[in-house]
Amino acid sequence: MPKPPLTLLLAAPRGFCAGVDRAIKIVEMALEKWGAPVYVRHEIVHNRYVVDDLRAKGAVFVEELDECPDDRPVIFSAHGVPKAVPTEAAKRQMVYVDATCPLVSKVHIEAARHHENGLQMVMIGHAGHPETLGTMGQLPQGEVLLVETVEDVAGVEVRDPERLAFVTQTTLSVDDTADIVEALKARFPAIVGPHKEDICYATTNRQEAVKAIGPRADALLVVGAPNSSNSKRLVEVARKAGCPYAQLVQRATDIDWRALEGIGSLGVTAGASAPEVLIDEVIDAVRARYDVTVERVTTAEENVEFKVPRVLREPA
Ligand code: 0JX
Ligand code: SF4
């Protein structure tokens, strides 16, 4: 039977961002330098394939520092850590390498600066997400108020509405965040913050590409993990852009082929923590069932690269 024709709308940019690339390289360098085991606090990036690959090379993934021995190196994940974590590692004289994305560290610095200037902080982010915990954990407990939605803004209780600042998680929905910022500014006109928000270039660009594809695609697959904030946002953006079916898939085996029956166009993208090998796997699986014509939908060119430290610090 001939395969049905399908236009595959391939998003660009998609997949790995500069912060993810750097964080994975740091773990690989640490393994090369110090040998196994090297401990990693939290998944280095939210992707099972990446984590399993590093685990096979000798990385040991833990959630908290107290699960690490004193005498092995530990790496902090790309999402950032509360200030107490490096403080504790130093106290235990551990060798540690911070793989926090420089764009997340920038938000940490901003929060600390506002705090030093006597401003109370509001963070727009998702409760319990490691980046939110890390950013809030830059300041003493209770100093950062979390808001997740426009509705939350009405209930937030501040010390002094004249002395307020806000920061955001880097992987939020650009549009939802704009609404929350607007609500904050309406309620607290004196609030200060970044020019728009702290959403990074990679998050913004991946959402833009999905917005271009969404209205044209009968369905869209986002390659990414269920705990990956930026990947989940891409599914929401696709649905909002008018795509009737948008689904997160970790890899090809997750694809629900029945849901794709009868489609003529399929969007494909990937979150910032999803490796290209998994995107290729998904495309190959689509090709096995459809007569595919690939159309690249490019909405931005990316050439961001973050320096990886040339030499990792020697154990004490
Ligand atoms: O859940 P997130 O999108 O914050 O993380 P993920 O999927 O690991 O993406 C890369 C790290 C992003 C940090 O900002
Ligand atoms: Fe950095 Fe953005 Fe990538 Fe997060 S998604 S690691 S902030 S570049």
Give structural attributes:
metal ion binding, 36% helix, alpha/beta, binds (3E)-4-hydroxybut-3-en-1-yl trihydrogen diphosphate, single chain, flat, Rossmann fold, 3 domains, Cobalt-precorrin-4 Transmethylase, domain 1, five-stranded parallel sheet, binds iron/sulfur cluster, four-stranded parallel sheet, 316 residues
Low-confidence stretches: none
The proportion of residues in beta strands is: 15-25%
CATH homologous superfamily heading of the largest domain? 4-hydroxy-3-methylbut-2-enyl diphosphate reductase, catalytic domain
Question: Biggest β-sheet: count, sense, barrel?
Answer: 5 strands, parallel
Helix/strand-derived class? alpha/beta
The quaternary organization reads as single chain
What's the helix-strand series? EHEHEEHEHEHEHEHHEHEEHE
User: Which bin fits the share of residues in helices?
Assistant: 25-40%
* Bound ions, cofactors and other small molecules, one mention each: (3E)-4-hydroxybut-3-en-1-yl trihydrogen diphosphate, iron/sulfur cluster
Give the neighbour order of strands across the main sheet.
Answer: 10-9-11-1-12
Q: What is the CATH topology descriptor of the largest domain? A: Cobalt-precorrin-4 Transmethylase, domain 1
Number of domains: 3
> Under the CATH scheme, which architecture of the largest domain would be assigned?
3-Layer(aba) Sandwich
User: According to CATH, what is the class of the largest domain?
Assistant: Alpha Beta
Binding site for dimethylallyl diphosphate: 46, 79, 129, 228-230, 273
Family: Belongs to the IspH family.
Active site: 131
InterPro entries: LytB/IspH (IPR003451)
